[in-house]
Design brief:
The protein is of the alpha+beta class. It has a single domain, classed as Alpha-Beta Plaits, CATH 3.30.70. The chain contains 3 helices and 4 strands; from the N terminus they run E-H-E-E-H-E-H. The longest helix has 18 residues. The chain starts with a strand and ends with a helix.
């Protein structure tokens, strides 16, 4: 089956528990239709590059899955109808990723860099 990576953004006024519940709901849709979740990451509340629907921030979430195309289409349909989801995008990958995403890896590298500067 093909590998898909989906990133979606939810409204800033949602709590962390609500965002995690949405992630579980969308993951369940993929697994119920014969897919498998490879990775899920919560990127947290991040600032937008421009204002979207009168909002400046949103909760970012990544789901990497190995599932059939109709499962991704169904998940995107439900995201489109959900008022809490601001934006979403799914892309097809050639192979599953290894390690954390670039967003998470960037913060890991920054933390190590700051620690080295503090010691020196």
């Amino acid at each position: 089956m093909p590998i898909y990576e989906t990133v979606f953004i939810t409204r800033q006024d949602l709590g962390v528990a609500q965002v995690e519940q949405l992630t579980k709901d969308y993951s369940k849709i993929l697994t119920d239709m014969g897919g498998k979740i490879l990775k899920t990451e919560q990127w947290g509340l991040r600032t937008f590059a421009y204002i979207i629907n009168k909002s400046k921030k949103g909760h970012y979430t990544l789901i990497e899955s190995d599932c059939p195309a109709p499962a991704v289409i169904e998940m995107e349909r439900l995201m489109r109808n959900n008022e809490d989801v601001v934006r979403y995008m799914s892309i097809k990958l050639d192979a599953p990723t290894t390690g954390p995403s670039a967003i998470i890896a960037k913060y890991d590298n920054d933390d190590r860099f700051e620690t080295q500067n503090e010691v020196a």
